[in-house]
Amino acid sequence: MTKSTAIIVEDNSLALEMLINDITNNHNEIKIIGTATSVVEAAKLLQTTKPDILFLDIMLGDGTGFDILEIFPNLNSKIIFVTASDAYAIKAFKFAAIDYILKPYTDQDLSKAIEKANLQLQPENEQLKVLKQAITKPNTKLEKISLHTLEKIIVANIADIIRCKSDNNYTTFYFNNNEKILVSKTLKFYADLLKEVGFLRVHQSHLVNTKYIKEFIKSDGGYLVLTDNANVPVSVRKRNEVLAVLNSF
User: pTM for this one?
Assistant: First the structure.
């Protein structure tokens, strides 16, 4: 059986040694052909060696993994991102809808990442741009989000999203151009992700972009009218929170 070749870019010596050992001992279908601990080392290595898989740490001592990808824009290697358990980095990967291995990881995590890489489930360039902005400019308000549909990945402007509605384990996004997108993740996932960029969960089944709220109607239990004339119910539990947000405008 022909083995896949791999290069590991990791600036933490212990993490590098662990990943080498885990691949060597548990994934004999992969042959490690090189390692690097910096952007400069990785660039030199990739000039002469083209691996099937690139294990890429995000934050390196002399730059980021994105610097490497910009040096080699036509790199055909499958990329497996590796990141430390930093809450902001994790959130960035969720915004970009890109898979990653979280250090410390389990062998199951590593196996899933390798399996996806072999299936050529690669992030799109637009997703990488979302991820780069989220990680390298942590104080900048995020402008885009990657949405997984059953057929494709769509990078959308967050400001264009009016509301989201739960549909069992799926979420429907409603946009200001009347477009709708059904996404294969739960509303809770997006409520947690978008709450810091102006979204408010007003009901178990509804998440709204507060800038599109037109009015709050107190009758019939209370509901919001949005700028697209959609009526969105407000749960009793969320009523005070919604009123507080509206009074802050």
Answer: 0.69
